[in-house]
Design goal:
Strand order of the largest sheet of chain A: 1-2
Number of helices of chain A: 14
CATH class of chain B: Mainly Alpha
Distance between the termini of chain B: 47 Å
Oligomer: heterodimer
Order of helices and strands of chain A: HHHHHHEEHHHHHHHH
Shape of chain B: globular
Shape of chain A: globular
Number of strands of chain A: 2
Strand content of chain A: under 5%
Largest sheet of chain B: 2 strands, antiparallel
Number of helices of chain B: 12
Number of domains of chain B: 1
Largest sheet of chain A: 2 strands, antiparallel
Number of strands of chain B: 2
Order of helices and strands of chain B: HHHHHEEHHHHHHH
Strand order of the largest sheet of chain B: 1-2
Largest interface: A-B, 40 and 43 residues
Helix content of chain B: over 70%
Radius of gyration of chain B: 20 Å
């Protein structure tokens, strides 16, 4: 009897998984995606464009981080290193080398990925809590490097970075022109992450998250998969940092500091670990909160701490996870 | 004699010994903090991210005892660990104890949040500029050792830290209480079945680990200025120390802590640019050569 139920259960399960939707989005995700695209399209007409651009950069950063924690189960506590270094390199490329914005952003992504290769190669030697501590320590090393290295400008950072002309043609000094570039970068990054999650590679990632020894015993080199996921995540974090640098024309130590690594964890946790749309919502909540509570000084830190505690104790699914649970859909 | 040493070392002897002493002091803090982390991790299976904030609370408790109650350094050394340890027990009872059945990750996030709250509250209350704390009269001044002047307080910090570390090690390795603790670290259910109140032991262990951080905070108060960020700057280095040493061995934590402090001091003499990063570089090398850590069990 038991074997019979498992036999009938497996094919329906497989068919259920394969029911494709469009680009791997199920019905509810498709609605959410349309809402997201509409919101990205409409936002600059209702809100201050620079604020929305900042939000989109952090949303991409959080999505990149979520790729690791939500889908491979790797807790990186040092993602600020890749985000911030992406920003520094893009700033240097745009200001000192005079490269166009798209090349600067790609350079930021590449440096993020390259650092991710080294950091991931070291960090995946340990698991769980040690992984978190190693990524954190490596990020602190990058931070000290940025304090001392001449090209980062130390405490001053790189200032007055020009936005330049897209493809050498379209000037981006106008906030609205810049906005559409950021929107495209964000949506491409978001779709790329979604594509990775729903690829065969992504299935192995999720298998590692669920049960690493078993995945190994099925014949997958789990370390290779973890490393590639880490590099992808860091590369996208670099892209996010580079884009943010071009938006604000400044790259500073704030973006490589540990508190930034903590903030991206908070965004993802608030939005919902392992949900596709969660990090976007989480970034909006955290950045919005910082924006509106900016004059409260150190209380912002306290409020962030309270949110951490509340999320962990009572609200582990996050906003999007709770909504998905309420309507019995996967978002 | 001194000239010969200087010729061999290539740097002035007072500089070298001065930095070595500073390194030993930093190492003393690394050792005490990583020891507390290891004890807590052993039983609770969480990495206590609040540790840096609790180190800072220890220093602030000393400052408050002096400024508000007129109680000096020696009282602070006794009372501050008790106060901060008690606050740790409350945190464990209220929050941390709810997470033991969940993924370790949540313990990390919760204690990170608690640390943010504590640090933010202190920053609101006291600003971030730092408050001075006098060296107690009995320990002020310096000894002329011939090759260097040794401030007595700095020597005291090293000796006191060694004392607390070795006392912790003796309690864990040589007493009945320590035997229960080690047993519960291995198999908590079995120890509970023998009639030992494991949840209470967990609570008290957390309190003790936190109290150790507070002791380090009191020792640090006269050396560093007492400020809300003093812990968060230190704790990331301590995490690297923990990764290098591995959390399997108490004695290993102590040796790694002091050893890395000395290495850091020597780096300040010979290649100052790398002094901030040397411990992280060592961590990378250890991960390549011996991923479980120098004293860790795979």
């Amino acid at each position: 009897m038991a074997s019979e139920t498992t036999l009938t259960a497996i094919p329906t399960g497989v068919v259920g998984k394969q029911a494709p939707g469009i680009w791997g989005f199920n019905g509810s995700q498709l609605i959410a995606l349309l809402l997201l695209v509409a919101a990205v399209g409409a936002a600059p007409f209702f809100l201050y464009p620079v604020f929305v651009m900042k939000l989109l950069c952090f949303a991409l950063f959080a999505c990149a981080f979520n790729l690791l924690i939500g889908y491979v189960g790797l807790m990186s506590f040092g993602h600020a290193a890749y985000f911030g270094m992406g920003g520094y390199v893009a700033g240097h490329a745009a200001k000192v080398m005079g490269l166009t914005p798209e090349i600067s952003i790609i350079a930021g992504g590449l440096i993020g990925a390259a650092l991710g290769l080294v950091g991931g190669w070291l960090a995946i030697r340990r698991q769980g809590i040690y992984f978190a501590m190693i990524t954190m320590a490596l990020a602190q090393m990058v931070y000290f490097f940025c304090v001392q290295a001449p090209f980062t400008g130390g405490e001053d950072g790189i200032q007055a970075i020009p936005r330049g002309k897209l493809f050498g043609v379209i000037p981006l000094d106008n906030d609205m022109s810049m906005y559409w570039v950021v929107a495209v970068v964000f949506l491409c990054g978001f779709m790329a992450i979604h594509r990775v999650i729903h690829s065969p590679f992504g299935q192995v990632m999720k298998a590692i998250r669920e049960n690493e020894p078993r995945t190994t015993s099925l014949g997958y080199r789990t370390d290779d998969y973890k490393l590639v996921a880490f590099i992808l995540s860091c590369g996208l974090a670099g892209v996010a940092g580079a884009t943010k640098t071009l938006v604000f024309g400044i790259a500073t130590l704030t973006d490589v500091h540990f508190s930034m690594s903590g903030e991206v964890v908070l965004m993802t946790l608030v939005g919902g670990l392992g949900t596709i749309f969660g990090p976007v919502i989480g970034a909006a909540v955290v950045i919005g909160m910082q924006n509106y509570l900016a004059e409260m000084g150190a209380w912002v830190t306290v409020i962030q701490g309270v949110i951490f505690v509340a999320c962990v104790l009572a609200f582990r699914r996050g906003i999007v996870g709770e909504i998905g649970n309420l309507f019995k859909v996967k978002l | 004699m001194l000239d010969a040493i200087e010729a061999i070392l290539g740097v002035p002897a007072p500089l070298l010994f001065g930095q070595l002493l500073l390194g030993l002091i930093n190492g003393a803090f690394y050792a005490m903090l990583s020891l507390g982390l290891a004890v807590i991790f052993g039983l609770l299976n969480i990495i206590n991210f609040t540790h840096g904030a609790q180190f800072m609370m220890g220093a602030f408790a000393a400052w408050m005892l002096l400024a508000w109650a007129g109680l000096g350094y020696w009282w602070a050394l006794l009372l501050s660990p008790l106060i901060v340890g008690f606050s740790g027990i409350i945190l464990e009872k209220l929050f941390i104890s709810r997470l033991y059945k969940l993924d370790h990750l949540y313990g990390l996030l919760l204690t990170l949040g608690l640390g943010l709250i504590i640090e933010g509250v202190f920053r609101n209350e006291f600003g971030s500029s730092g408050l001075p704390y006098r060296i107690p009269a009995e320990l002020s001044g310096a000894w002329d050792l011939g090759f260097m002047f040794m401030p007595i307080y700095r020597g005291w910090v090293v000796v006191a830290a060694l004392f607390f570390c070795i006392a912790t090690w003796l309690i864990i390795e040589k007493t009945r209480l320590g035997a229960y603790l080690r047993a519960a670290t291995e198999r908590a259910e079995l120890v509970q079945a023998f009639g030992i109140n494991v949840p209470r032991m967990i609570t008290l262990t957390y309190g003790a680990g936190v109290a150790l951080a507070a002791v380090a905070g009191v020792l640090a108060a006269p050396i560093y200025s007492v400020n809300p960020q003093m812990g968060s700057n230190l704790i990331i280095v301590v995490f690297a120390v923990v990764v290098i040493g591995g959390m399997g061995s108490i004695l290993g934590s102590i040796i790694t802590g002091f050893g890395l402090g000395i290495v850091e001091g020597l780096t300040k003499v010979y290649y100052p640019e790398a002094s901030a990063t040397v411990i992280f570089v060592i961590m990378a090398i250890v991960l390549l050569a011996r991923p479980a850590g120098l004293f860790g069990r795979a």
